[in-house]
Amino acid sequence: MEPINARSMLDAAASAAASSADRPPIERRRRLSAAALAVTNQKVRRAYSPIVIAGAVRLADFVLLSFVGIALYLGYVVPISGFHWEYVAAIIGMTATAVVCFQAADIYEVQVFRGQLRQMTRMISSWAFVFLLFIGASFFAKLGGEVSRLWLSAFFCVGLAGLIAERLFLRALVRGWARDGRLDRRTIIVGSDQNGEKLIEALKVQDDSDLDILGVFDDRNDARALETCAGSAKLGKVDDIVEFARRTRVDLVLFALPISAETRILEMLKKLWVLPVDIRLSAHTNKLRFRPRSYSYLGKVPTLDVFEAPITDWDLVMKWLFDHVVGGIILLLALPVMALVALAIKLDSPGPVLFRQKRFGFNNERIDVFKFRSLYHHQADPTASKVVTKNDPRVTRVGRFIRKTSLDELPQLFNVVFKSNLSLVGPRPHAVQGKLQSRLFDEAVDGYFARHRVKPGITGWAQINGWRGEVDSEEKIQKRVEFDLYYIENWSVLFDLYILLKTPLALVTKNENAY
């Protein structure tokens, strides 16, 4: 089921919830409860995507079996009867068929990788079926006499031995990841009442569940809100979830509230949609039932998708490869230019060539971003508390040129390639003290921190459309956020490539706000 569009949800929330002017900013640092702090203080490792793991195992099976079949063919058959491409085609066909049969036997699931007996029996029977299929096809095509029986037997036995060895190694690997919590979906429940208890109990009774329920959150302080919900502690109120998710890894927010509580749910979603997590509504207590395909399931518990974390699974792998491969090439090509800029800065004014500035990264993480120094060293402003304006006396002669052309951003390629806390393309990382007049950016634009649901970038959709440089009006920061959210909702590798190719032209033609 497709998740609900973020814009339509926000429009509905705006009409149902109180206006943003009447509520406190949700991104201010909140004091968490002792129970919540105990969870955030736990050591948490980065999660691995089950979808990527399963895909990698499929690829490993294909490569392993192809290698075994071709190696045996080259070592035994070719010296006797010469090389024939038909053999290679048959090997590739058998290998591809084996992967399809393994998929049909449901052995490409992380939960199956943890076990032993079930995956081994299914794998052996599927591999045997592939060979029976090949033998039958050879017989009807009258090719039985042309196929080496010794090669075919060796391919079956050695291939099976390789698969068993691979699965034993994979089993140990997956179990180690499971112990480290890398395969768990860290989940919080919204609703600490009887509905919450029923939901948690339904989730806990399922075998091989990958959900790690961290606790529950509820705004109510009366008898309806339980302090302990089916063994899970109440960690705080809904307003605390954003700060909680900033301090520890949260993968899923699951609402135990009935769908009939529409106004309350919309008010909460307006606060939580800025987080890079999946958000779902549990439908386990609803009397109104939709078609089964309308739901996504956590085991046997039906849920309705509201928001999905952007750029996950294979999309994340593709973006990582794009950043490091293309970013590495650009860095090598840019090194001579960077050397010239560094020399010009050193000759123009005293002080270091580079400086580091604190900026917002993914999920509001504070990161150090490298830049060429464009201000006089004694007037440096590492927190960017004062915006650089036109004819700013703090900017050096070389600084004006490199800021206008964005050459001062080139050292951020080191952030992309070596530190991996920036992408080539994404929302620009704003300084943590960036302000519009006397207001911080998140106070000026509702939903500002939703742009941090993905890793920030050196260039972005907003920048190539002219929204870069000085922020001296509410329209400029609103447009930046609007274009950033469009990028997040429509991301693709081709979109990244398009933005990257358009960047040089945009730097020349749309730099009127860059000082």
Task: Give a structural overview.
The two termini are 46 Å apart. The radius of gyration is 28 Å and the shape is flat. A hairpin with a 5-residue loop joins strand 9 and strand 10. The strands form 4 sheets. Strands 3-4-2-1-5-6-8-7 form an 8-stranded mixed β-sheet. The chain has a two-stranded antiparallel ribbon with strand order 9-10. A two-stranded parallel ribbon has the order 11-14. By secondary structure, it is an alpha/beta fold. The chain is 49% helix and 12% strand. About 5% of the residues have low confidence.
Keyphrases for this structure?
single chain, 515 residues, alpha/beta, 8-stranded mixed β-sheet, 49% helix, flat
In short:
This protein is α/β, with parallel strands linked by helices and 515 residues long.
Which helices and strands occur, and which strands form pairs?
Elements lengths: L5 H11 L17 H7 L9 H32 L3 H20 L5 H5 L2 H24 L8 H31 L5 E6 L3 H11 L6 E7 L10 E2 L2 E5 L2 H9 L4 E4 L6 H11 L5 E5 L13 E3 L2 E7 L5 H36 L5 E7 L5 E7 L24 H8 L7 H8 L3 E3 L9 E2 L2 E2 H4 L12 E3 L1 H4 L9 H16 L3 H17 L6
Helix pairs in contact: 1-10, 3-4, 3-7, 4-6, 6-7, 11-12, 11-13
In total, how many beta strands?
A: 14
Distance between the termini: 46 Å
> How many distinct helices?
17
Helix content: 40-55%
Query: What is the alpha-carbon Rg in Å?
Result: 28 Å
Spatially, the strands of the biggest sheet line up as 3-4-2-1-5-6-8-7
Measured by DSSP, the beta-strand proportion falls in 5-15%
Unreliable residue runs:
4-27
In this structure, how is the largest beta sheet organized? Answer: 8 strands, mixed
Q: What average pLDDT do the residues reach?
A: 85
Structural class: alpha/beta
Looking at the structure, what is the overall shape?
flat
